[in-house]
């Protein structure tokens, strides 16, 4: 039978750190991988506490089952090391002894962070691309209050120049100027919040009706720029949602923009986009954007949600993939289905928020 030295040589050959400690947390053995991972020699660790390497060990061992989860370990220089730790009790060892296997997750965590940053940048690109495509409608929407402000200002000037002017009429004109300026400012505020959205901001419980109302002005502006009608159909019993508001706004604006562009070859009087919101039989919320255009071509259907696949001449092909990524990150889904008798329908499903009483 192999002796203790043979066992130590086997453990020294392991790629993961292996540490044996007793019931008091005193380290009895540490393999070579432990030295490489933590910067301590095995001699330095022998007889010291496991807390030096794994500060969370006491809370981990309070669990009734063997430990197998992610935790934070400490390098000799104080650096935190993300690890996957598995701790088991050594059977037949008399006094309780435990063996801990620690797998370094640093590279995986760094890769996850790089992926997160890349996705965040791609979302920003997709968001700004959508806002850029909506520029015409937004400019038209801003032009209306600005034109009204100019007209009311001219009217106020004429009233003041008139010898028999009524100051109350001037006050009315000034109040209208203030109202139109507030309207223009609100449009700009909403656009800035969309363009500068913080993707790391926390999710918040949101009323679907209020959320749609906030986007209504921007959506209607884009529809007018495309000479299309836009209809909203909301059920009264919609559940609250726990969402990142600006990310979901990005999804809806992108779906709306796609629907409007799909109507480009239709007669203006026939162009119609409908946004419906309903509660599903499971209690979740379903938001659908439907157009009455030609529908999605069969040639693109299978690749509809693939990145960098766009049917637009100047499209970047990130809109729908990012929309689906956002939906799935919220625990929901985004799917396409043909509309009847013609057109396309994109359905965003989001889980209802768990509201505690």
CATH H-level superfamily title of the largest domain: Histidine kinase-like ATPase, C-terminal domain
Q: Which percent range fits the helix content?
A: 40-55%
Mean pLDDT across the residues is 82
How far apart are the first and last residues' alpha carbons, in Å? 64 Å
CATH architecture of the largest domain: 2-Layer Sandwich
Shape: elongated
Task: Count the E strands.
Answer: 12
Largest sheet: 5 strands, antiparallel
What strand order characterises the main sheet? 2-1-5-4-3
Briefly note the structural class of the backbone.
alpha+beta
Features:
Heat Shock Protein 90, alpha+beta, five-stranded mixed beta sheet, Beta-Lactamase, five-stranded antiparallel beta sheet
Please give the structural blueprint:
Blueprint: H1 4-12, E1 17-22, E2 27-30, H2 32-38, H3 42-45, H4 57-61, E3 67-74, E4 80-89, E5 97-104, H5 106-133, H6 135-161, H7 167-195, E6 204-206, H8 208-225, E7 229-234, E8 241-243, H9 245-261, E9 272-279, E10 285-291, H10 298-301, H11 319-329, E11 333-338, E12 344-350
Parallel strand pairs: 7-9
Antiparallel strand pairs: 1-2, 1-5, 3-4, 4-5, 6-8, 9-10, 10-12, 11-12
Describe the fold and architecture.
It is a single chain. The chain is 45% helix and 21% strand. The strands form three sheets. The protein has a five-stranded antiparallel beta sheet. A five-stranded mixed beta sheet has the order 7-9-10-12-11, covered by helices on one side. The protein has helices spanning 4-12, 32-38, 42-45, 57-61, 106-133, 135-161, 167-195, 208-225, 245-261, 298-301, 319-329; strands at residues 17-22, 27-30, 67-74, 80-89, 97-104, 204-206, 229-234, 241-243, 272-279, 285-291, 333-338, 344-350. The radius of gyration is 31 Å and the shape is elongated. A hairpin with a 5-residue loop joins strand 9 (272-279) and strand 10 (285-291). With 357 residues, the protein is of the alpha+beta class. It has eleven helices and twelve strands. It folds into two domains: 4-104, 2-Layer Sandwich (Beta-Lactamase); 116-350, Histidine kinase-like ATPase, C-terminal domain (Heat Shock Protein 90), CATH 3.30.565.10.
């Amino acid at each position: 039978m192999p002796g203790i030295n043979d066992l130590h040589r086997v453990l020294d050959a392991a790629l993961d750190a292996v540490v044996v400690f007793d019931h008091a947390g005193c380290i009895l053995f540490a393999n070579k991988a432990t030295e490489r991972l933590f910067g301590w020699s095995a001699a330095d660790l022998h007889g010291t506490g496991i807390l030096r390497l794994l500060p969370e060990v006491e809370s981990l061992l309070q669990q009734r089952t063997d430990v197998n989860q992610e935790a934070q370990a400490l390098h000799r220089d104080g650096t935190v090391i993300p690890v996957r730790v598995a701790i088991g009790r050594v059977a037949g060892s008399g006094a309780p002894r435990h063996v801990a296997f620690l797998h370094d997750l640093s590279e995986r965590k760094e890769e996850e962070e790089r992926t997160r940053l890349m996705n965040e940048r791609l979302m920003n690109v997709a968001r700004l691309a959508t806002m850029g495509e909506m520029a015409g409608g937004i400019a038209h929407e801003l032009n209306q209050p600005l034109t009204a402000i100019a007209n009311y200002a001219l009217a106020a000037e004429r009233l003041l120049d008139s010898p028999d002017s009524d100051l109350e009429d001037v006050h009315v004109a000034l109040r209208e100027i203030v109202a139109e300026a507030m309207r223009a400012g609100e449009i700009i505020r909403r656009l800035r919040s969309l363009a500068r959205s913080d993707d790391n901001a926390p999710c918040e419980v949101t009323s679907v009706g209020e959320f749609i109302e906030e986007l209504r002005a921007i959506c209607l502006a884009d529809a007018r720029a495309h000479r299309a009608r836009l209809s909203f159909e909301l059920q009264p019993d919609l559940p609250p949602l726990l969402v990142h508001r600006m990310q979901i706004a990005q999804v809806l604006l992108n779906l709306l923009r796609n629907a409007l562009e799909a109507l480009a070859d239709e007669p203006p009087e026939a162009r119609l986009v409908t946004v419906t919101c309903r509660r599903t039989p499971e209690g979740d919320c379903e938001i659908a954007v439907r157009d009455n255009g030609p529908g999605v071509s069969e040639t693109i259907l299978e690749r509809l949600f693939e990145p960098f696949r766009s049917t637009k001449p100047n499209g970047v092909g990130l809109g729908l993939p990012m929309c689906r990524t956002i939906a799935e990150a919220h625990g929901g889904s985004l799917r396409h289905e043909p509309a009847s008798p013609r057109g396309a329908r994109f359905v965003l499903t989001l889980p209802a928020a768990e509201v505690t009483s």
